[in-house]
Amino acid sequence: MKNRILIYLLPVLLCFAVGFIAAGLQTDSLENWYPYLNKPSLTPPDWVFPVAWSFLYLCMGLSLGLILDRKRTMQDYLPHLFIVQLFLNFIWSVLFFYFHSPFWALINIVALEIVLVVYAMRSYRVSLWSSILFIPYIIWIAFATYLNFYIFIHN
What we know:
Elements: H1 2-32, H2 48-68, H3 78-98, H4 102-124, H5 128-132, H6 135-154
Helix pairs in contact: 1-2, 1-3, 3-4, 4-6
């Protein structure tokens, strides 16, 4: 029982840890750069982002937990794919907020979206719920891609 709890808890904590580190890299830009960018009218208020990401990190971690909890060999590559998407997620924050590069962030987020869809499609074969838990993340990243694209074009 204890091991099963860890199978779900550790991926969730990993996602939150990566998000926490990324948020730390954004602090200066959120005060001195991002507010002065031209953004689309659909840009959510600032308070939406930490709320949305908290929900998404929980879903992401639980998705991986469901994969790790299965005893199938077919799942072996899925944790690696999960780490790739988490890395791309983190790098987006570095590119966009730390390096102030909407162009490279856009390239990165498109790659992230592709990896997310592949993960969701492949995890479906192992766990329907693992795949379903990635749907809000896929939608959010699609929306973030739109925001990133707009910022790249208009700044």
